[in-house]
Amino acid sequence: MKKNENRLQFLKDEIEGMKKENLFTTLPVLSTPQGARVTINGKKALTLSTNNYLGFANHPRLAAAAKKAIDKWGFGCGAVRQIAGTMEIHNEAEEMLAKYKHTEASLIFVAGIAANRGTIQVLMGEGDAIISDELNHGSIIDGVRLTKSEKKIYPHMDMTGLEKALKETQAARRRLIVTDGVFSMDGDIAPLDQIVELAEKYDAITMVDDAHGDGVLGKDGRGIVDHFNLHGRVDIDMGTLSKAFGCLGGYISGRQELRDYLINRARSFIFTTAHPPCVTAAIMEALRVVQDEPQHLKRLWDNTKFFKEGLRDLGFNIGRSQTPITPVIVGESATAQKLSRALFDHDVFVKPIVYPLVSKDTARVRNIVTAEHTQEDLQFALDVYKKVGNEMKLI
Ligand SMILES: *Cc1c(COP(=O)(O)O)cnc(C)c1O
In which domain, by residue range, is 40 found? Predict the structure, then answer.
């Protein structure tokens, strides 16, 4: 090969292939802070595409807490947690989180994806079995792929399938059942009470990914474990601080030995620098605000009910969602792309979700209602859906 030859030409070919299948995506760009009404790709629009459930991404108390922390701690922390980067504020935030979650201890990772990868990777190994719902999030799948453990995938939320997998893996040294709490693309809630019962019957470890339940389900947004009142019965409660809590970070909550072990062994914890203290301060403030200001959570659920009923009445297929995540399922990826473009022409921003995020025949646009939307915002979106849905003959 010549000196100046492009050795990445194959990527251009791959991208052409994605474009042909309507699977290629670019990054929409905001020129305003996050919120219900934003300027995105240069256009003012109502957005229904964020995970900013409670509106905390731009909550003044979080921003103020972060600013104060910069004055006290400076910006960066300059080292990985295990070596010299842990500040008092990191430990305080974890104690606060553990208390909020009603667990003995918590450990915060740089992001949810790091928490899933690092935790599953070190807990399970050769001779073990991981039993996983077929629609689990990509970061769980990554964690599973990093182990030498046997893998069993059970049909989505199918408790008979889960029990069958438990029976088939009786010879394993240890078993882990892992599930999303709220499934991110469909918005349905895992039957965690039944999963825990099966786990107890067959002596398996349980892990739930509460990324879309945190701040959304349970008393004061404590999540799915609280929603089902399963405190103390789920071994590993994983969640994210990046969605409803409006910050950044993933966490694991559970027993003290779980935290101690992960600090020593989880690669995605050990080999990465700690959060800037201003992020940690904002996390702590988010936990205070979610408990001090219950109006956000109430508004989130009122809005969810209103918007779901509206879309259903119009005749859209919104799947089996039980949470603010509200897909409009259209089938073909080209149709999802077209619907998204048509909505945006009318100032409603909803990103199409296509393969590999969902299967090729269930392409959709995914709406997420937040506490920041007003009833007028949602009615505006419903009117646009009606017009566009009729024009595209989707309803
Ligand atoms: C978003 C998400 C994650 C990752 O969380 P981040 O903090 O954004 O890395 C993990 N699991 C699920 C189910 C998610 O939706």
Answer: 26-57+294-391
